[in-house]
Amino acid sequence: MSKPDPEACREQDHGKFEVIRRDGWARIGKFHTQHGIIDTPTLLPVINPNIKTITPRDMWDNYGVQGLITNSYIIWKHEKLRIPALENGVHELIDFPGFIMTDSGTFQAYVYGDVEVGAEEIVEFQRKIGVDVATMLDVFTRPDMSVREWDEAVLETEKRAGPAIKAAGSTMLNGPIQGGLDSSLRKKSSQIMSKHAFAVHPIGGIVPIMEQQRYREFFELILTCNSELPSDRPVHFFGCGHPMLFPLSIALGADLFDSAAYVLFARDGRLLSPEGTVHLDKLDEWPIHTIALYGITPDEVRKMDKNDRTEILARANLEITFAELAKCRQAIRDGTIWRLAEQRSHCNPELREAWIELQKQFHSGKWDNMCRVQNPHRKSGVRCIEESSVNRPDIRSAHLNLQKYWREYPPSREDNGLPPLAVVFTGVPQPHRAYLSRTINHLMAIYPNAIPLISTAAGLVPYSLEDISPFAHLETIADLDRSGDSDYIRAGLVDLGLNEMNFEILGWQEKYAQMEKILAAMAIKLKIGEDKYLLYQNQEVKDKVRTITDRISILDKLTVFTHSDYKLVWDEIQNATFLYSRTGRIKNIHLKDGTHIASPRLTDGGISLTEKGAEWLHSMHTTTLPSDEIYNHENSYIGIPRVVIEDDAIPFIRKGRNVFHGFIISVDSWIRPGFACVIIDSKGEIIGHGISRCEAKDMLALSKGIAVRTRGGITQK
Ligand code: GUN
Prior knowledge:
Radius of gyration: 29 Å
Shape: elongated
Number of helices: 28
CATH superfamily of the largest domain: Queuine tRNA-ribosyltransferase-like
CATH architecture of the largest domain: Alpha-Beta Barrel
Strand order of the largest sheet: 6-5-4-11-10-9
CATH topology of the largest domain: TIM Barrel
Number of strands: 29
Number of domains: 3
Largest sheet: 6 strands, parallel
Bound molecules: guanine
Strand content: 15-25%
């Protein structure tokens, strides 16, 4: 069945990369081209213009392939291809209506030593044959070269960049990143190449690294490159096409892949699978369902002639490749790409080693630039069933957020001479409040300066935030639960800035009466008189304590979820009133004058602001409007993050429309995806409020798509 040709993107969108969804650095994007809008992450199958095992037209019609890559050097070299390509264009030459990227001959230079074509000549040729994205002639960095050779290759590639961009004219161009195995050279290459007007940045020189299964080095250099590359350009992994590598590559920011693996492996009688490669010779049954192999047995395929066998296996490999990519895209939408990468890390020892090393590096804080930009909130369970799972950026980001924004609540809260005391509850089932609320309230009655915390498999969480994601939705196994281990608890206290504080550990007991006994024992140890201990029997005391714990919970949610100053918030929250639901949970929060400012969110334990609430938090700002200067001060956060928009956009935002990239003047550096922000004009007046979809760098770099999902527009006073 033939599929219609793609529609060209709007002229003004040509070359734009729009990010639709994110899960940390993983992103679902739309790359706008003249031959269709490409949904990423995706793979561009490699087509050899001389040998078409599966024709490009077949790929378009039957496999949903939106784009492919072919080699302009091969076309240039063979007259029978060059002449028709120049006359009718590359799309007609290979009979493919979708997006076509071409490579430049660099890889041939790597395999055969040299190519006869000039660096500008090959780019001009690609422009003339009408490709969508051309590639400059970069210098391939092999892993066995010396650091000096890598450096020379990086510099030579950059030297060719300017002339290549000129030769490409309006054709989009790939700017490959080289640098071999050297992190500082990869960093340098990323920095200098991103200064040029390239449309896409492929990471080059990685084929031999992947072939040698040096995945530790591979993923580390990917992280280095992606820390530097601009977020408004797709990142392409040159020659990466094994489905096993997709989830982790995508989690680390890959948008495009290209590979001939589907056909090369087929020629060798091998089947790709997300769990590794399987050889036809060893199969009695297919390990994975495909349309291509449906109704045929491995034995029947073995008996086919070579061409037929290659074709049928290539078709199966293509199906498997695209199925895994679809799985990855769905995982980005579901917020589970890291979980999938973790699962896949078990498929191969080298990959597993790379995974373990990466988790160590995440734990050490080396890649906090990446962990920080991950939205930590999930609407459902977060699987954490390996020792290293807690270091995964999707879980670590929640910690980093607590570490940065949660504060031990104002010390002046109760002037009773008792020093602050961290009381850590261990082994508490979820939902924590259902098992612990009475005990916590009793604790607060006898020791008002206690800071109750819950030890979870993902670290310590203040009880005031016991229902926040992911801590409240962890799916873990008992074996991994270190939550009762005192070293673990001590480390957790340090993370939360409570290192100087005394602490008590209370193990949860199933019966409330047993919990009471433990509490009584603690009271004796802390020399709290029985009269005080028994005070909790009084209903008035119970009500008072409950109000205090509720206030602390709202204070903590407001500071952690809106990044506001906790002292300023506390001053007002002390006089706030709450409306409760029938099940006894807080529904609405009202200031002293009755203004409804916010409501807790049950899905992820967050808090949703009302317009009045956003205005209230915005009015607490004491710093000047965000500017480039503030942008550089990662630690100077204070207050709900502000997004300053252009005047043209104001009427739309006031009506409640979303904020689009391209209309943003500046932004506070501490803005994070999934968190509340206010939308203001250039004079600082509030126009609306919403939930940010990205971090500050993306906010300003991207030029298409939604930057802030507006929750409410605010009309002019
Ligand atoms: N194909 C695979 N690796 C590379 C590379 O480093 N550069 C180019 N241009 N093409 C490649």
